[in-house]
Structure formats: C-alpha cells, structure tokens
Specification:
Helix content is 47%, strand content 13%. The chain is an alpha/beta fold. A nine-stranded mixed β-sheet has the order 10-9-8-11-12-13-18-22-21, with helices on both faces. It has a seven-stranded mixed β-sheet with strand order 3-4-2-1-5-6-7, with helices on both faces. α7 packs across α8 (248-261) and α11 crosses α18.
Length: 672
C-alpha cells in the first residue's frame, strides 16, 4: 500500500467511513496494484493486437482479402512476442499510467520501434516478405505508439479532472509575472493542485515577442507596466512573480505596479530551489524588503571562501552580534578545523553555539566569554589556540547611544581594536580583518570617528615591518535587519499600529543584507592582495522614507492612512547622506565585481604614542584630552553639537577642580 494508507480501503484517511463509490474504487485500485504487472502486459499486448488488426484493415480499405487475412493470423504470434520483448526492453511494464511525461512518451515510441523492428526481422526470417504488405509495419507502428500514448494521456486527464475539477469555485484570480519555464511550471502546479482555489488568468512579460501569444494554455496579457489596467479588467486578486533571482530593481517595479492595482504580490523562491525541485505553489512567499534592494543580489557561497577557511583555526570577536554570528555561520559551513566564538554577551554566545552544533557541520567550536578590553585574556586566548584568521566584529555601533557615551565607545572601539590587533600580530596570524563602516568617511559622530581610528590602527600594523600577516579592513554601509537597525525598528512600529518615525524626508543610506555583507568580507579576505581597505559594492543609496513606505505597504497597509509616517529630525551625529569613499581616496577594481580597493594618502607607520596618550586620557576620564588625541589622528572629524557641549562641560569641571586644561591654544578642537 502507499505511504500514509490506513490499511483499510473502506475507511477514509481520518477514520470516517468512506462513501460507497469511493470504497468500491479503493478496492478496485488495490486489486489493480496487486496484479499490476500482468495487467500492464495484457493491456499493452491488447493495444498492440488492436493496432495490428487496424493496420491491416486500413491497408485494404476496411475489407481484408481472405488470402491476406490468413497471412495476418499466421504472423500474429510473432507480433505479440516481438512487441512484448520491445515493451519490456523500453521499461513499459514499470511505468505509472496516471502520469505522462515526455520521458514516458519517448519510452513508448522507443518500445514500439524496437518491437516493430523485431517483428520485421521475425517475419523475414520465419515467413518471408512475399505476400506480406510492407505498409502494415509503418501503419502498425504509428497506431500502436499513438494508441498507447493516448490511453495514458486520457488516464492522466481523468485523474486531474477528478482531483481538480474545472467546475471548482475559484476564490482568487491570479497573474503570473514571467512567461518562462518557472512561470509555466508554477501555472501547471496551480492547475494540478486539488486544494488550490486559484485560477491563472494569464501571464505578464516584458518580452514584446510573447505579447498576445498563449503559453501553457494561458494568454500573455501584457507587460509589467500594464499590470494595473490588466488587474482591473480581469478582477485579479493576486500577482505572483515567477522570475528566479529577479534583481531588486525589477522586483521593486513589479511591486509598485501591484500596489497601484491594489493587489498583493508573491515571490517565487530562488533558482536553486527550483532546479532541485523543491518549489511548490504553496511555497511562494510575500515580497520582503530585502528583495527591493537597489542592486543585483550578491551570490553567497564562493569556493574561494572555502579554500580560505577549510582546515584553519578562526577566531571571531563580537561573535554573538548580527555580523559576527553570520560570519560564524558561513565560516563553519566552509569546514574550519576550529571556530572560536569570542564575545562578552553570555546568552548570545550560548544561543549561537547551540545553533551551530545543531547544524550539519562538524567543526570544533570553542565558546569564550571574553572582552576585547582585557589584553591579558586576549594574549592567553591567542597563545592557547593560535588562530590562523581573525575577524574583528566587536564594536559599539549605535550612533545615538555612542554620542551619549563617548568615553566608553572610544574605549571599546579604539582600545579594544588595538588590543586585538596587537595580540593577532604577536601570534603571527595569517589574516586579520576589521569590520568597518561607511560612517568612518568624514565622520560626524563618535561611532564613525572610532571606526576611522580603528582603520588607521590596522593600517599602522600593516606598515610595521615585523608583522608577517595580512591586515585589512572591509568598509560597508547599513545591513538590513541587524540588531538595532532601522528595519526591525520599523517592523515593530508597524506592529504597534504606528507611527513609523523617520529622521528626515530626504535622508538616505546604503543597504546590504547580512549574508551578502559577510560573503563579501570573506571574499575580500580570500583575495591575494596587499591592500588594506576594501569597499563592498552597495549599489545606490535608498531613501529611508521610501523604505518606511515599502515596509508599510508590504504589510498590507496604506502609508498615511493605516500607518502614519512622522519626521522627527536628524539626531546628534547623524548625516543626511553617508559616503563610502573619502575625497582623498581613490577606488580601484578587483577581480570580484562587488569588491573595490580604497587607495588614499600614506598613513603614519606608528600610531603607538597617540594611542598610548589616548588610553591614559581614557583612564583619567579626561574627555577634552580624548578628543584632542582623536582629532590629531582624524583631522576631518566634525563633532556634533552635543559632543561640543559635553566637552565644554568637562572643561568647566576641570577648571572648577583646578585641573590643568588639556585643550590649549593649538588644540585641534575649537569650541564656539
């Protein structure tokens, strides 16, 4: 019996008594399955016999002369034996008649051709061709092949009509965008699905040569821009995108036209899932905000990354964070010998380790509750495990919070980076990678300032002659759905019923998904290059206001009506537009289209004295001295008004306590 059978054909699967007709049909199907092979042999030979007699009848205009009738009967045993052998050789006794594919049709033709060839040889050998009509061989082959295919096709049509009757109530009328192979397959699956109450009204395709044609029985009704008009004309309630790996700009254009029509939009999974045969109509999903990125997606899973990581010991700082955890997931899939999860977030490390151990990959995992500010602990960890690669993702990254806590942000992002770089250099690592940000370009906030200093620390270690390893930084913009980023904030605000808060109507940011960012970090590390700072291709900047509207509409709501959008003004340290490249830097392409190299003015080889002075100022809590040292390293930093006020407050406090002022006449920071 088939899988999931109850064992009693007189009962329905849920245990309820089946209708009498269904019970009889179930018993007949069970009997047919028990005697399946003899029935197939008998039925195939019966078709062969009917085709043979019909061939003789057609040859003689339905009136077979007596002498040829005797010839027909004498050759009949040879025909049945020949056809039986041909059908057996083509595997026609093991097929499943309720399904007919092109492979089945080819097998039917092959079996009949082989059977006819054997029959011809047998007639020549045993009877001779004298008196045997030659045209019968051809007519018999055509009739037998067509008859067997027609019977199987009829059974398939009957089954599909029984499971999916034409008269079923159609609750939804759908358009499929993409009249290619994926769209055709999707349409076929909808038609075959007995549970579906969706009827495909037609295809949408920008290919002008397809307009007006019928594809898989459905008309191509127009192009993407015609979706609103077509949807209104045909009463469309659903639009399905059947374009595997559709670029973001195309998905965005389709969703915009769908929104104009007031119709929800669904997206087919990616091409890999389709090729593996795992896509069904029920697996279509709603369009997500990451599908609307203003650039083509980055392919994840490069073989170069596997060659970089396989068999190596890898350490990731900030392993429990958004970027750090995805780094760990992609690294462990590439087959390292050991992966060290270094983070001070206890619950995050615990959850990440459990998640990685539950996967199919068997790398040795070493969870360490560590702090990049503890230089002694770092030295001990590097000495115990001697990592080959280090990815430094630990950092304070929230702009507004960093503006309110500048001392701790500088301590963590600058001194912490110095500690990790120093331990990595002393240990002789092959690769050290700093995860940086576009906010390091002409920084206007403390977070961007500290990341720019961190980049220069990496450059200074790279310039040191006694450091054998490769030290580099990878710079990119915002990542979608990372902890504390705008996407989860908007999602939460929409769930509460709004309003969605945006800082400014014109504010823009560069965006990339977390898996894409991590993939390119790993690819930059794998490149054979002596360059120090790499830039990820981020595409065009996206307006945050547009992102908010897209997220509201993708939630099935209307911006300004169901969910309000409020503009709250730029926060301290925030820019209207971010930049990826400093005016003094130049871009150079690499062998990978999504990676570029930043080349700028030569950096001072030794930042040691400045960082030492900075560390001493941090220990004293001397905020004016801290920013004096930072601006000596990054002269183009423009502090926010809140930072200027905070430094002025500290200066007044120093004067009140008769502490010698740190900021003097030659200070890099001028407070107005």
């Amino acid at each position: 019996m088939g899988e999931g059978s109850t064992g009693n054909p007189s009962e329905a699967p849920d245990g309820a008594p089946a209708p009498r007709g269904a019970s009889l049909l179930a018993r007949l199907e069970a009997a047919a399955l028990a005697w399946r092979t003899p029935l197939l042999v008998g039925f195939n030979l019966a078709l062969a016999l009917a085709a043979y007699i019909t061939a003789f009848a057609l040859r003689f205009d339905l009136s077979i002369p007596l002498e040829h009738f005797s010839v027909m009967l004498s050759a009949l045993p040879l025909l049945l034996i020949a056809k039986a052998l041909g059908f057996w050789a083509a595997g026609l006794y093991s097929g499943w008649w309720r399904h007919l594919s092109m492979t089945d049709a080819w097998d039917i033709a092959r079996g009949n051709a082989l059977g006819s060839a054997i029959f011809l040889g047998a007639v020549v050998f045993f009877m001779g061709l004298q008196g045997f009509p030659r045209s019968v061989f051809i007519i018999d082959f055509i009739l037998c092949t067509g008859g067997m295919a027609a019977v199987r096709l009829a059974l398939r049509v009957m089954r599909e009509r029984r499971e999916n009757p034409r008269g079923r109530h159609a609750a939804e009328a759908a358009l499929i965008v993409g009249a290619g192979s994926a769209g055709i397959r999707l349409r076929d699956e909808i038609e075959r699905s007995g549970q579906s109450r969706t009827v495909v009204m037609g295809f949408i395709d920008d290919d002008a040569t397809k307009s007006g044609l019928r594809v898989a029985g459905c008309p191509v009704l127009g192009d993407i821009d015609a979706i609103p008009e077509i949807a209104l004309r045909h009463g469309i309630t659903k639009i399905m995108i059947a374009i595997p790996s559709a670029p973001g700009h195309l998905t965005r254009r389709i969703t915009e036209r769908s929104r104009e029509a007031g119709v929800p939009c669904l997206l087919l999974p990616n091409l890999g899932e389709i090729v593996e045969g795992r896509v069904l109509y029920s697996q279509m999903r709603e369009v997500k905000v990451e599908d609307l990125l203003a650039r083509d997606p980055v392919e994840v899973g490069s073989p170069h990354v596997q060659g970089l990581v396989q068999g190596k010991t890898v350490l990731v700082t900030g392993a429990a964070g958004s970027i750090g955890s995805e780094l760990c997931r992609q690294i462990v899939a590439a087959g390292p010998k050991t992966l060290i999860l270094f983070d001070r977030h206890e619950n995050g490390v615990f959850d990440l380790e459990a998640q990685l151990r539950a996967g199919p990959f068997k790398a040795r995992l070493v969870p360490i509750l560590g702090d990049v500010l503890l230089a002694d602990q770092l030295r001990a960890v590097f000495a115990a495990h001697t990592p080959d690669l280090v990815f430094h993702a630990a950092a304070y990254k929230h702009v507004a919070l960093s503006e309110k806590n500048p001392l701790e942000t500088v301590r963590n992002n600058v001194i912490g980076t110095r500690n990790v770089v120093r331990a990595a250099a002393a240990s002789g690592v092959a690769h050290f990678v700093l995860v940086s940000t576009d906010k390091a370009v002409e920084p206007s906030n403390v977070m961007g300032l500290t990341k720019r200093v961190a980049e220069r620390i990496v450059q200074s270690f790279k310039a040191a002659e006694n450091v054998p390893g490769r030290f580099l930084a990878v710079r990119f913009g915002n990542v979608l759905a990372s902890n504390g980023s705008v996407v989860p904030i908007f999602r939460e605000q929409i769930a509460r019923g709004g309003p969605v808060t945006v800082t400014h109507p014109d504010v823009t940011r560069f965006f990339m998904t977390i898996p894409e960012a991590v993939e390119l970090i790993l690819r930059a590390t794998a490149l054979e290059s002596d360059d120090e700072i790499f830039l990820l291709e981020m595409g065009q900047p996206i307006k945050i206001a547009d992102l908010a509207r897209n997220m509201i509409e993708l939630s099935g709501l209307t911006p300004g009506e169901d969910i309000a959008i409020e503009y709250i003004g730029l926060r301290p340290g925030e820019k209207l537009h971010e930049a990826l490249v400093h005016p003094d830097e130049k871009l150079r392409p690499t062998e990978h289209r999504d990676l570029q190299v930043l080349q700028g003015a030569a950096m001072a080889a030794d930042l040691g004295p400045r960082i030492q002075a900075l560390e001493e100022a941090i220990a004293r809590g001397a905020l004016p001295a801290i920013f004096d040292e930072l601006m000596a390293i990054v002269p183009d930093y423009e502090p926010s008004e809140s930072i200027v006020a905070l430094i002025a407050e500290h200066e007044e406090l120093e004067k009140a306590t008769r502490t010698e002022p740190v900021l003097g006449r030659d200070s890099h920071l001028h407070i107005v």
